[in-house]
């Protein structure tokens, strides 16, 4: 009857967000008076699997088939279903990411289970099995009740902080016989992209204004952008002065963007500029003028000299990514 | 359930007429301010303007139309699960193109149920390719397409950025973490589309006028139970003022951006 | 509409002497699904192709404007009302007004579009022979060929028939040799077809010719440097012994002026549509700005002085729009009825439109002046940035100004309004005499203070509007009587009368629209519209009084003046109410919606 959670890894390294999913499953297991079991697919060392115990699972089922090293959604679903049957699982958890989204709904259909995609909370058992998720592209939240016997959840990453304990999990190997249909999709090629991010699509943007003093200083912006995997943008005076290409100009008479994160460096925040970026989810303003209007529209602000702050921020991001 | 024609298939080759089913869902316009009513158990839809889910319209539908225009597909059908109030949006889709539309007369409240309705209908016709948007901008689930694939015993590719078809195989580029993968898949397949698959179009006069005359068939679905239900809603907390961070503490800023703002 | 209904239908100009039932007017809130889809295509077209390129368009980037026309053509927007037999969509007039309105927010593009689809195409469509239509219309409809219209000359603007361009038949009778200089020709830089007006030999009146760019003897001056609509191609066109085949004479010899006048009737009301579309866009932009710009710690949209402007912009726009679509539908119904009686469709269209030429002139003046207010206050709302060439208001302000000048200046249109009214009265088409005498009689008798009628939601405004009509009839009747033939020379009086007529027509149109709307949606859902109506009618009363007073004092004195002033006061008396609060209500809704939302 255990809670079953699908764990993802990259080349044998368990993803940070999978630890979150495991922790989440373990917590639900506690709430429902049962145990938690992790399912790991593909090539991965036992020593790595042992780490899962610290996030609360009692058992790890490992299907070592190397065909599973890359996503094959039907195979993954078959594996989850087989594991669920073996464990008598009524609650099955995956991540709300590209892989989880391709797998969980199949499991839901096969097991005639209700699915909540992108859960942000633990289930409220008083009201049934109610989970909170974001709707209307983040404009509101919904509380969704799963009424079926079996319940499938995809967890939105970054919803709960990681709090590893000291538990240990037993590791059990599981053999699954797959059908041809499980591997129906052939991977022709994989392209890991490291090039520039297009401004219109970018989730993260670093933007510079006249406070950057001149085009020769833009390397600092570009360094931060590169570290973040962000696109670069600029304010109108900068584009007009020819410091940056026109397509980078965001503002009332330039482009309108809606990234998750907009870091504005040395931009005063005139309303015309804001018009191009106020749809951003989070705005960070770095400016040496504490009266700069942009601070009113910002979520986070740093008062100081951009030339000093940018390298420090780039370094902090680098550090953060290394530890992820 | 009304039965349309069943295409003739045998095990190894598909029919020479390639049929595409495009799943269209109606969503509130992106500028809509969400307001709750009835003790927060429902969304106030008064005065809401509805549009075709952008991912369905700009990518799935347009690609289907391109495939027909290029002579690859012979039929493009549109399907929506919704009550009569969804018909204007269906006609907007028909104004862009498509041979006919089907409306499954039911509220779309649960992905499991919606997928069953669509799959039940699709089985009566037999489609080689089912296209949908990567997710709908109202409930952001992105699960109906996968469920349809499972019900049709078909493959599914999500986050597609490019679709090419040759014979009974599709070459699909899809987004993966940190890059892009190119897959080969045989029909039948369900593909969820996003930016890159096609370019949005503006309906032209000819299309708008044709929309009136294209068939929009209403089908009563066979009963299928919902397995989830939205009990209530909640509005996000009001935006707080700016949080100042010392320039000497960029680690703190990064941490805030990660754990509080959740943007990195 | 059957014959008895048609007889009952309000004729052009009759708004002055009859009551219009609210159910009979068309209101924009009634657009059907297909029309809304068409409107959306127009808006999407601007958003995708025009708005992002406004600077490039204003710089007249080579080939850009014709390219945009091609894109519009590909969407079918250039042939909305062209008959299907010529490759068009044969849509009704209101739909083509709607398209003009939605594209009206397109700055220079809007002018190029309107010139091409209106004056650039319609002369041939309405006056061409079957051969001429078959040759030119399909390509104009698709946009393959672009059209322009050459009437104005350096020394003949308002006085169009004074043009010096001349055409002379060749000895072999095969060509007209055209000589002349035309000025302010829109689309000249890329047009393929010109409709050119010139007098043949010593004719008194103009004739019209279809001239192809490729005929020899056509040269263009460089682009004019204009205050606004800089992206619109405006050039002088020189015809130097230009050889025009005789088959290209459009309609009969000396029929040119009539063609021009008839096309202008349509052009005027269409201009109304376009300026209304531009107004709505400017208002939304201004509201957006006001909601964002903070001073003294708050968005400026919270301040009363700004709210007043936003409300007034919306009130004027809503009112102009009410008039424009009321008249569009009237034109359409009149045309349909004439077709039913067996008239040729094109003749019916011209006659149906002509029927409402007075209303068309009114709308041209009113809507262009509404836009004037909207852009002026739009700049003001933007404050310093309103003066900046980097912000949108500058372009809107400069682009708007031409609307009070072309398609007949607003002064000419005012005078035509009165002139046409009086001419129709003289011809017996419009009975002004009877009603005017009735009003004169009323002046003599004791005023009827009776209020035994049941008070409805609209009874006050209906009463006021009925009063306005009496005011106009009284002043006009007296002016005609006093001044007789001299009235034509008393332009100030004509202007006063025109202003009274305009306010009356627009106020009544607004009242009828809101009445119909309440019938459709219920009072609760129309609170702001009711406020708009009440404020507009209230303000109209003041304007009608002011114009009437000026007129009366210019041609009457002694007892007569006293009596008319008493009558004027009575006929324009309205009950006090808190217009400031009403404006606040209207502004609140606009600010909440963050755009023009009526």
User: Low-confidence runs of chain A (pLDDT<50, min 5 residues)?
Assistant: none
CATH class of the largest domain in chain C: Mainly Alpha
Report strand % of chain C.
5-15%
What characterizes the major β-sheet of chain A? 7 strands, parallel
User: Globular, elongated, flat, extended or rod-shaped: what is the shape of chain A?
Assistant: elongated
**Quaternary arrangement of the chains shown?**
heterotrimer
Number of domains of chain C: 4
What is the mean predicted local confidence, pLDDT of chain C? 95
Strand order of the largest sheet of chain A: 7-10-6-1-4-5-11
Helical content class of chain C: 55-70%
Number of E-type strands of chain A:
17
The CATH architecture of the largest domain in chain C can be given as: Up-down Bundle
Bin the strand percentage of chain A. Answer: 25-35%
* Element-by-element helix/strand order of chain A: EEEHEHEHEHEEEEEEEHEHEHEHEH
* CATH homology group of the largest domain in chain C: Butyryl-CoA Dehydrogenase, subunit A, domain 3
Count of helical regions of chain A: 9
Radius of gyration of chain A: 23 Å
Mean pLDDT of chain A: 91
Number of strands of chain C: 10
